């Protein structure tokens, strides 16, 4: 991961501004609520992320410049917030740059990593794996 990446540093600053981990969870939930909704046809098996306890859908594409674009949704508030966080981390980047980002390291830096349940950590790993795998295919 690039040191001094402006998107990552912005996320770290936003979460550093918050007090304890409960405030960080609330902020994460608010991030999820702000996501643009997916259409009903996008809540498909093709877009569903396997390996998540909650239902998670990720729609991956590339823009005209070849940068990764990601949209997503979940049926669980905190997981939807994690989807929003991953969208901020990965979307808008060239696929090779996105592949170099370590989401767990970013979560640790913002103080959420140690507060995720094992199920959410596994789901996060599945989402990241899906993003990385799809980055080369879209």
Largest sheet: 2 strands, antiparallel
Order of helices and strands: HHEEHHHH
Mean pLDDT: 88
The dominant shape is: globular
Secondary structure: helix percent: 40-55%
For the secondary structure, the number of strands is: 2
How would you characterize this protein structure?
There is one protein chain. The protein contains six helices and two strands, in the order ααββαααα. It is mainly alpha-helical and 138 residues long. It has one domain: Alpha-Beta Complex (Sufe protein. Chain: A), CATH 3.90.1010.10. The protein has a two-stranded antiparallel ribbon with strand order 1-2. The protein is globular and about 40 Å long. The protein starts with 5 loop residues before the first helix and ends with a helix.
What would you say about this model in short?
The chain has 138 residues and is mainly alpha-helical. It has 6 helices and 2 strands.
Question: What brief labels describe this structure?
Answer:
single chain; 138 residues; mainly alpha; Sufe protein. Chain: A; two-stranded antiparallel ribbon; globular
Indicate the topology.
Blueprint: H1 6-17, H2 21-33, E1 56-62, E2 68-74, H3 77-90, H4 95-99, H5 103-109, H6 118-135
Antiparallel strand pairs: 1-2
């Amino acid at each position: 991961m690039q040191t001094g990446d402006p998107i990552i540093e912005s996320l770290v600053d936003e979460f550093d501004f918050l007090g304890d981990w409960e405030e960080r969870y609330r902020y994460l939930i608010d991030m999820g609520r702000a996501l643009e909704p997916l259409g009903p046809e996008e809540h498909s098996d093709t877009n569903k992320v396997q390996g998540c306890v909650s239902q998670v859908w990720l729609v991956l594409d590339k823009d005209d410049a070849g940068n990764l674009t990601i949209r997503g949704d979940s049926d669980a508030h905190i997981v939807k917030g994690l989807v929003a966080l991953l969208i901020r981390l990965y979307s808008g980047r060239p696929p090779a740059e996105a592949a170099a980002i370590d989401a767990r390291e970013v979560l640790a830096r913002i103080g959420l990593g140690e507060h995720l349940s094992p199920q959410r950590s596994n789901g996060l790993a599945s989402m990241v794996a899906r993003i990385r795998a799809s980055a080369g295919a879209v």
